[in-house]
From TrEMBL:
<feature type="transmembrane region" description="Helical">
    <location>
        <begin position="195"/>
        <end position="214"/>
    </location>
</feature>
<feature type="domain" description="G-protein coupled receptors family 1 profile">
    <location>
        <begin position="40"/>
        <end position="281"/>
    </location>
</feature>
<feature type="transmembrane region" description="Helical">
    <location>
        <begin position="57"/>
        <end position="77"/>
    </location>
</feature>
<feature type="transmembrane region" description="Helical">
    <location>
        <begin position="140"/>
        <end position="161"/>
    </location>
</feature>
<feature type="transmembrane region" description="Helical">
    <location>
        <begin position="97"/>
        <end position="119"/>
    </location>
</feature>
<dbReference type="InterPro" id="IPR017452">
    <property type="entry name" value="GPCR_Rhodpsn_7TM"/>
</dbReference>
<dbReference type="InterPro" id="IPR000276">
    <property type="entry name" value="GPCR_Rhodpsn"/>
</dbReference>
<keyword id="KW-0472">Membrane</keyword>
<dbReference type="GO" id="GO:0005549">
    <property type="term" value="F:odorant binding"/>
</dbReference>
<dbReference type="InterPro" id="IPR052921">
    <property type="entry name" value="GPCR1_Superfamily_Member"/>
</dbReference>
<keyword id="KW-0552">Olfaction</keyword>
<dbReference type="GO" id="GO:0005886">
    <property type="term" value="C:plasma membrane"/>
</dbReference>
<feature type="transmembrane region" description="Helical">
    <location>
        <begin position="235"/>
        <end position="252"/>
    </location>
</feature>
<keyword id="KW-0297">G-protein coupled receptor</keyword>
<feature type="transmembrane region" description="Helical">
    <location>
        <begin position="264"/>
        <end position="284"/>
    </location>
</feature>
<dbReference type="GO" id="GO:0004930">
    <property type="term" value="F:G protein-coupled receptor activity"/>
</dbReference>
<keyword id="KW-0675">Receptor</keyword>
Length: 304
């Protein structure tokens, strides 16, 4: 039918231009990155679940962010490995939409979850005496649920706008499927709906935390130190995501730049943050680091 000709069932990802002999090397790099993501994030989640002392809002939210990181990495890296190993570029329509939906959800859910973390840290630093009364278990799960709901709703609306858009072509000029990459194949011009504003809320929350700590530092010299200690890991993760996002946006503004370079920058926020975040949490959070070392040491001595 004419409809099946307009809407291709199978897309073809342009992917990277891999020089002869480099496919295996790139496959090993992608595999190593994915294993680091799985192991690092897996250790963080397992330790938080096992250690009851870590059953607190901040660490529960870290678990949610870990799940988000795993979603993004799993949506892209396995197919990228298959591309390097076998040269396979084809992807069916439904898996393509699923990959695009997962990647966009990862991007937005990261922001909404960091927003929930900012709210939690704001209460902890600015209202320390009322923290446990405000951040109850119900409030914690509501914040996390709302973060996921807002992300999923935003992406569902984004995709719903262009669900029945006819496509003229099937070659996606990208490494993975995204809403924008698919819509470039549209037979007519389509308004791209971008999501803004979430990062402003996060930045404002951390600004208020630090502002409050400076104001109170004359009364309590330990408040400022506590503010920086409790927010450092969150701020580092937040800045890391924003830097990756800015690099992606800027790289696409230079038409003369190599297409492979642009594609590499476009997957930075998927391959770098999920691998580095567990290290950031482990280095900055003394409690989490101590718990990981304790359980690792216990396992080693138990085997001996």
């Amino acid at each position: 039918t004419s409809e099946s000709n307009i809407n291709p069932i199978v897309f073809e990802l342009e992917g990277f231009h891999v020089p002869p002999g480099y496919s295996s090397f790139l496959f090993v790099l992608a595999l190593f990155n994915y294993m680091v993501v799985l192991m690092g994030n897996g250790v963080v989640v397992c330790v938080i679940i096992i250690d009851k002392n870590l059953h607190r809002p901040m660490f529960v939210m870290i678990c949610h962010l870990v799940v988000c990181d795993l979603l993004g990495a799993t949506a892209v890296l396995p197919r990228l490995m298959m591309h390097f190993l076998t040269g396979e570029r084809r992807i069916a329509h439904i898996p393509a939409i699923a990959q695009a939906f997962s990647v966009h959800t990862y991007g937005v859910a990261t922001q909404t979850l960091l927003g929930a973390m900012a709210y939690d840290r704001y209460i902890a630093v600015c209202e320390p005496l009322r923290y446990h009364a405000i951040m109850t278990s119900a409030r914690l799960h509501s914040c996390c649920g709302l973060a996921w709901f807002v992300a999923l709703l935003c992406i569902a609306v984004l995709f719903a706008f262009h669900m029945n858009t006819p496509l003229c072509g099937n070659i996606i000029k990208h490494v993975y499927c995204s809403n924008r990459a698919i819509l470039r194949l549209a037979c007519r011009s389509t308004p791209i709906n971008n999501i803004y504003g979430i990062f402003i809320i996060i930045a404002f929350s951390y600004f208020r935390i630090l502002q409050a700590s400076v104001k109170r530092s004359n009364v309590d010299s330990g408040v400022r130190s506590k503010a920086f200690q409790t927010c450092t890991s969150h701020l580092v993760v937040y800045v890391l995501y924003e830097i990756a996002s800015v690099i992606i946006i800027v790289s696409h503004r230079f038409a003369s730049a190599s297409q492979d370079i642009k594609k590499f920058f476009s997957i930075l926020f998927i391959i770098i943050p999920p691998a580095i975040n567990p290290i950031i949490y482990g280095l900055v959070s003394k409690e989490l680091r101590s718990s990981i070392i304790k359980h690792f040491t216990k396992q080693v001595f138990h085997k001996k």
